[in-house]
Design goal:
Number of helices: 10
Distance between the termini: 48 Å
Strand order of the largest sheet: 1-2
Largest sheet: 2 strands, antiparallel
Order of helices and strands: HHHHHHHEEHHH
Shape: globular
Oligomer: single chain
Strand content: under 5%
Helix content: over 70%
Structural class: mainly alpha
């Protein structure tokens, strides 16, 4: 078995182990689902803050806390709190940590910036899944967002391996090709049509095609954006949390950009 095929087996095994629990929490909705999203955003914030390496700083801890709280604010669990209040606290806390504990002044801006980005990037974008879940048939809208994201990634992977010739954006991700991107678009559009036909009948086929096509653009954009951050710090993966996948941020980078888009489409098209 080649290394590529062995890695694919590990990736599939990881999904098989984790997917049932995730699907159950999506079906439950409410506070259990909000805590799932909060835990995921906190882990992503930690991975992002640790890209430069070294010990966990106070700013990183503040970032993780902010990322955890943001989805709970969306759920309405924390009364009187707002997204802007959480991010304000993260900014002030990160600056305070840098002022008190950062010995190298030239490193202070990066310390603060990573803390704020770590809270806002996953904390705001992934939290879009919470109002999406609160919609009528919300569990199926979540399934739609996951389907268009992961089918895009899967079809792009196999189409790229089979037909990939022309590089998509070699400076950031040498493995991605235009042929893979086209295959991914076909997968996300087909997935959107199937999910909408079976579980979201109020979504017209043209709307499903729009969501699939939009995800085929935004998903790779999210993937490339996270790859840019990793490349800036010389990191191959955001962490080693998920066997075969790298870190959690590596696994959901495309979903971070697709989730707000699907929420917007759900509100406008139905």
């Amino acid at each position: 078995m080649t290394d590529k095929n062995r890695n694919l087996v590990v990736r599939v095994a990881t999904v098989v182990v984790l997917l049932p629990g995730v699907l159950w929490l999506i079906w439950r909705g409410g506070l259990p689902f909000a805590f799932l999203i909060a835990g995921a955003t906190a882990l992503c914030a930690l991975e992002l803050n640790q890209l430069p390496g070294g010990p966990v700083t106070g700013a990183a801890a503040i970032s993780v806390a902010g990322a955890f709280v943001l989805p709970l604010v969306y759920e309405g669990t924390i009364q009187g709190a707002s997204e802007s209040a959480v991010l304000t606290a993260v900014v002030i806390g990160a600056f305070a940590d840098a002022l008190l504990f950062e010995r190298e002044i030239p490193s202070a801006p990066r310390r603060v910036a990573l803390a704020v980005l770590g809270a806002a990037y996953p904390g705001l974008l992934l939290a879009a899944l919470i109002p999406l879940r609160q919609l009528p048939r919300g569990e199926w809208w979540i399934l739609l967002a996951l389907t268009v994201t992961w089918l895009n990634d899967t079809f792009a992977y196999f189409a790229g391996r089979a037909f990939g010739r022309r590089k998509l954006y070699e400076r950031i991700s040498p493995g991605k090709t235009w042929e893979g991107a086209l295959g991914g678009a076909a997968g996300s559009i087909a997935g959107a049509l199937v999910v909408s036909r079976i579980w979201i009948p109020e979504l017209p086929p043209t709307g499903a095609v729009l969501i699939g096509a939009g995800a085929a653009v935004l998903g790779p954009f999210g993937d490339l954006s996270e790859s840019m951050l990793k490349r800036a710090f010389g990191a191959k993966d955001s962490s080693r949390l998920l066997p075969g996948h790298g870190g959690l941020l590596d696994r959901i980078d495309a979903l971070l950009f697709n989730a707000p888009f699907v929420l917007l489409c759900a509100r406008l098209l139905t």
